[in-house]
Amino acid sequence: TARDLIERANNPEQRFFPLTAAGLSGIVNDRVFSQELLFTLYNVSRRQQVYNTYFSSGLPIAKIFGMTGNTSSGRASFMFDDENDYRFKMLVPRVIDATELTVSMKYEEATLDAASITGMYRNLIPLARLSEAYLIAAECEENVQDALDKYINPLRLARNSRNLTASTPAELTSLLFAEYTREFIGEGQLFFYFKRRALLSIPNGTRPNTMQTKTIAIYAFPVPDSETYPRAE
Questions:
Q1: Could you tell me the pTM of the whole model?
Q2: Mean pLDDT for the chain overall
């Protein structure tokens, strides 16, 4: 369970996949928080196949994955509540085809630093990380203050962000929603969080601070022809 993973991570005798320590000097390069990763893909062509294909400033506006506006007044400025947040520092403003965008540097090529001999994090693409266990545990916690003290604020400390407060379950749900949107940029887990909660109002990446309304159909992928009967010819 999520709580079991967290207990293992915090056990001083085991320390399996612990959260990143606040103030970690190598965070500039290790943008995937590699010590937290429970399951990953290892892609030696990560920059070419991921960053250059979806996030590079050399892409045309129609192909780049970015958020509208710059980091001061665009979507990113409304997503993040602390400019010291490591996740915010991975975002950079770009002007592409005369349009201001904010793009993630998470999968940009990272140079070796003193914190890593091998620099293996340069090739990692996260599939499951400890931070998701913290957010799941917080969502399942009945006591709002316990959810903050045990799960949300420890995670935010590891992201170099200030503590949050909440007094009601509704406020806690709102904080969790915001934390999910910050944590999983470029990774995919946010889609499954939206799907699990059947959310029909989700952030609009093309507007600074608005939501867009969807139907439940967006969470259903088409069945491949090879898995339909009778099979399509």
A1: 0.88
A2: 88
Per-residue pLDDT at 118: 54
Count of CA atoms in the C-beta half-sphere (13 A) of 91: 30
According to DSSP, the residues that pair with 126 across neighbouring strands are 40
Let me know if 164 is exposed, middle or buried by CB neighbors in 10 A (0-12, 13-18, 19+).
middle
Closest CA to 210 of 65, 48, 56, 67: 67
107, amino acid identity: Y
Look at phi and psi of residue 196 and say left if phi exceeds 0, alpha if psi is from -120 to 50, else beta.
alpha
Residues 6+ apart with CB under 8 A from 92: 71, 102, 103, 105
**CA-closest candidate to residue 131, choices 27, 33, 203, 16:** 33
Q: What is the pLDDT of residues 138-177, one digit of tens each?
A: 999 999 999 999 999 999 999 999 999 999 999 999 999 9
Residues in the chain: 233
Q: How far apart are CA 172 and CA 80, in angstroms?
A: 16
For the chain, counts of helices (H) and of strands (E): 9, 7
Q: Are 215 and 82 in contact (CB under 8 A)?
A: no
What token pair was written down for 80? 């993040």
How many CB atoms lie under 10 A from the CB of residue 59?
18
Amino acid at 94: R
Which tokens go with 21? 């320590």
Q: What is the pLDDT of residues 77-112, one digit of tens each?
A: 999 999 999 999 999 999 998 999 999 999 987 665
* Cβ within 8 Å of residue 142, ≥6 positions away: none
